[in-house]
Amino acid sequence: MSYYEHIVIPDDYTEDNSSESGSGDILEFDEACDRAVSHEFSRIFLPCVYGIIFLLGIIGNGLVVIVMGYQRKSRTMTDKYRLHLSVADLLFVLTLPFWAVEAASDQWYFGGFMCVAVHMIYTVNLYSSVLILAFISLDRYLAVVRATNSQGPRKLLAERIIYVGVWLPAALLTVPDLVFAKAENITVRTSCQRVYPEPSSVWRAAFQFQHIVVGFVLPGLVILICYCIIISKLAHGTKGTQKRKALKTTVVLIVCFFSCWLPYCAGILVDTLLILNVVPHSCELEQGLEKWIFVTEALAYFHCCLNPILYAFLGVKFKKSARSALSPSRGSSLKILPKKRGGMSSVSTESESSSFQSS
């Protein structure tokens, strides 16, 4: 689902703004803008990108879920976060084929029930994926900076608080989808989108602002603060190849998160300001912003393909477990893998790709 779907202009749209349907899918323009180029761009670009993200996401996150399933008895707290993250990303990418078909055909074929269901699955897993990353950074902070007696708080975070701090808020954020998402007929086609009551522009702006705050600003601040403190801790510790690797990996985690999500959220912010008439409208700006959000949205979604690499595949233990899980003759050996415990100052490559410490 392109977050910019609300600017799609129906065929019978005229310059008379008083005829606005109130569906929440039309911006008020002083003049009609030519959307033909952007429309053709989205029909080609979005299905291709969604298809690539779907395939990579299914393979990467599916492998993580399989490996975690095989090593149930030796699963660490870090592994529990990996599993939560991969399940969220896996369910998220499962919604992309629906949006790809709609983008390619300019038509929603799957009915009203599936429209609401896909919207809700999309929303809950989009938010939960980002919030889980914040929880992982908190866990790494406790493991590295507050290593003494951190097992209790870390266990509480991984086994209890994650449901209240991640899955419950993500589920509550699907309420607008349940209320507003509809498969609506627009002239000769059916579109699956949120249909807001009047004043539709205020509703749109409110939900887009919510997306920026809950889906980027709050988890982004937690990630940035926790990892910056971790970097400071590691930089002032003892020197060694392992700690240099941990520092580099921490920087990679920060750069990847903000590189993927910041451009997209910046585009949504500008769009929100346009909706509220804080920024003056112009066809050039609208057309350029539409393409910007198409491209950066794909970049943001691509982060769910990077998560298995950043938070699982770089770990030494995970790679060994994956080889065992994919080897029929050795698959059963995963059930008896010993559960390692790390000390305060050790920097083991076992932990989630950040290689901070064994969990």
Search tags:
single chain, 359 residues, mainly alpha, Rhopdopsin 7-helix transmembrane proteins, two-stranded antiparallel sheet, 10 helices, disordered N terminus, disordered C terminus, membrane
Count every beta strand, where a strand is a DSSP E run of 2 or more residues: 2
Note the run of SSEs as H and E. HHHHHHEEHHHH
Count of separate DSSP helical elements: 10
Terminus-to-terminus distance: 37 Å
How would you characterize this protein structure?
Helices cover 66% and strands 3% of the residues. With 359 residues, the chain is mostly helical. The chain has a single domain (5-332), classed as Up-down Bundle (Rhopdopsin 7-helix transmembrane proteins), CATH 1.20.1070.10. A hairpin with a 2-residue loop joins strand 1 and strand 2. The radius of gyration is 22 Å and the shape is globular. Residues 345-359 have a biased composition (Low complexity). Belongs to the G-protein coupled receptor 1 family.
Q: What does the secondary structure layout of this molecule look like, with pairings?
A:
Elements: H1 36-70, H2 77-94, H3 96-105, H4 111-144, H5 151-172, H6 175-180, E1 181-186, E2 189-194, H7 200-235, H8 241-275, H9 283-313, H10 316-325
Antiparallel strand pairs: 1-2
Helix pairs in contact: 1-2, 1-3, 1-9, 1-10, 2-4, 2-5, 2-9, 4-5, 4-7, 7-8, 8-9
